[in-house]
Amino acid sequence: MTAPIQTTNKDQHSELVELDKQLLWHPYTSMSTPIAHYLVEKAQGMQIQLADGRQLIDGTASWWSVIHGYNHPKISQAMKAQIDNFSHVMFGGLTHKPAIELGQKLIDLSPDGLERVFFSDSGSVSVEVALKMAIQYWHTQGKPNKQKFATPKSGYHGDTFAAMSVCDPVNGMHGLFNQALTPQYFVSPPPTGLESEVDQSYLDEIRTLFSQSSEQIAGFILEPVVQNAGGMRFYNPAYLTEIQAICEEFDVLFILDEIATGFGRTGKMFACNHANVSPDIMCIGKALTGGNCSLAATLTNDKVALGISDNDGVFMHGPTFMGNALACSAANASLELLIEYDLEALIGNVENNLVSALEPCRALSNVADVRCLGAIGVVELKEAVDQKVIQPMLVDEGVWVRPFGKLVYLMPPFVAEKTDLDKLGSAIFNVLSKLNK
User: Fold this and answer.
1) How far apart are CA 99 and CA 317, in angstroms?
2) How do the domains of the chain map onto residue ranges?
3) Strand order in 253-257's β-sheet?
4) Mean of the pLDDT values across residues 320-330?
5) Which of 28, 310, 342, 437 is the catalytic position?
6) Dist CA 356 CA 426 (whole Å)
7) Residue 295 and residue 214: Cα distance in Å, rounded?
8) Which of 201, 204, 265, 307 has its CA 20 to 30 A from that of 43?
9) Is 257 a catalytic residue?
10) CA–CA gap between residue 117 and residue 299 (Å, rounded)
11) How many CB atoms lie under 10 A from the CB of residue 8?
């Protein structure tokens, strides 16, 4: 049996990094020209400790999920206690207290009307589940031709095939699969500006599409208030109210993807709370467990859940690790922490500190815009960054920030202090200044 690898000296550190490059395929990377990844030994709060001794302030909360910081004692203890009982049992025919408690918490926190919870393993799968729910619902309502979806351009909903089909078809990262994806209906992205007046012509575009094709459209899916990986685009929450009304008029299910925006990221528990709307179906993930393990869910109302169940009887989906007890225990502890926060005050303070930290970047000639909402801070550049160039520069500044395209953004843990955000802002400013020369 192979002995466990331990990183105790510089030579072992180098060997592990080289072994990683030979064996492991990381997200959105090439195996023929692999880049060196940074070996982590420990993470605590806002800090990531590398094996070479460097400490990095994390500005991304590990892809927006570690909202309470790393290794929070309450979540860690909940997971340790669950391990002593069991980590997982199949959810087919069995159930357990952590899942039941989590279901109740989610219903209590979610917009009124969402009453049923379907657990899955990841955000992409929660979107797959939402799309399947919509199709199966309309099938039971005697409208089997409603198999397609409408969605705004500049959206991102995941890497699996159905999720990819509702991502931006041109500027998204999945264009090379376009011949294999189900063709969907796309409208323009919502006009930007949190306080900009609602553009009636945009709503007319949606209305025109529905008047022509609603017999084929099962649902309209979008990210509320913030289109995230498609460009960090902020738009007026009032569009949600207007779009939902059009969906109801044309018998199209209203589906919200809250995977990135849920659990406080925009200053409300869910981004749709900014407009006080309740969708037919809502997808959640990422921060659900406080970033401690993978778990997602698709929430729906009784109209959809009972519409499917009273007719077909069963919903056709069932992941092996559905309702994983260890993940549910982490999620319960994470949500208990969220409930204890004065969430709007907490995120409002983070937003103020983000504005202060990033505002100096506006003066740089290679910067197109600086914008913040809740615990989201964005520096948009005029030209796309080279990941291989900018990432090491940021690490040398003592921060972990993961830019993409034209965007250098922060989505920090909610425990971020002003000193942390100032350091992140200074690092971004310093790096962009060097790239500006």
Assistant:
1) 17
2) 98-336
3) 114-120, 296-301, 281-284, 253-257, 217-222, 148-152, 185-187
4) 97
5) 28
6) 11
7) 33
8) 265
9) yes
10) 5
11) 8
- What pLDDT shows up at residue 56? 98
What 8-state DSSP symbol labels residue 67?
T
Residue-wise pLDDT for 36-46, tens only, equals: 799 999 999 99
Which is catalytic among the residues 286, 409, 420, 423? 286
Exposure of 344 in the CB half-sphere (CA atoms within 13 A): 5
- Do 119 and 299 form a contact (C-beta atoms < 8 A)? no
Q: Name the CA dihedral angle for 111, 114, 120, 122, rounded to a multiple of 10 degrees.
A: -30
The first and second tokens of residue 327, run together, are 């993940």
Nearest-angstrom CA–CA distance, 207 and 188: 12
- Which residue is listed with tokens 């034209």? 406
Q: In the prediction, which pLDDT does 26 show?
A: 92
**Residues constituting the chain:** 437
Residue 239 among the catalytic residues: no
Active site residue 235: no
pLDDT in tens, 394-421: 999 999 999 999 999 999 999 999 999 9
Check 58, 121, 168, 257 and give the catalytic one.
257
Cβ-contact 156, 172 below 8 angstroms: yes
Four-point Cα dihedral 11, 13, 14, 17, nearest 10: 160
Q: Mean of the pLDDT values across residues 225-247?
A: 97
Structural class in CATH, domain 98-336: alpha beta
**Sorting pLDDT into bands at 50, 70 and 90, what band is 4?**
very low
**Catalytic residue among 156, 185, 235, 239, which?**
156
pLDDT score at 172: 76
Question: For 175-184, how does the pLDDT look when each residue is reduced to its tens digit (9 = 90+)?
Answer: 889 889 999 9
Q: Is 28 a catalytic residue?
A: yes
Residue 306, pLDDT score: 96
272, 279 in Cβ contact below 8 A? yes
Higher per-residue confidence, 36 vs 424:
424
Structural tokens at position 163: 């999720």
pLDDT in the model for residue 12: 87
Find out whether 271 and 224 touch, Cβ atoms under 8 Å.
yes
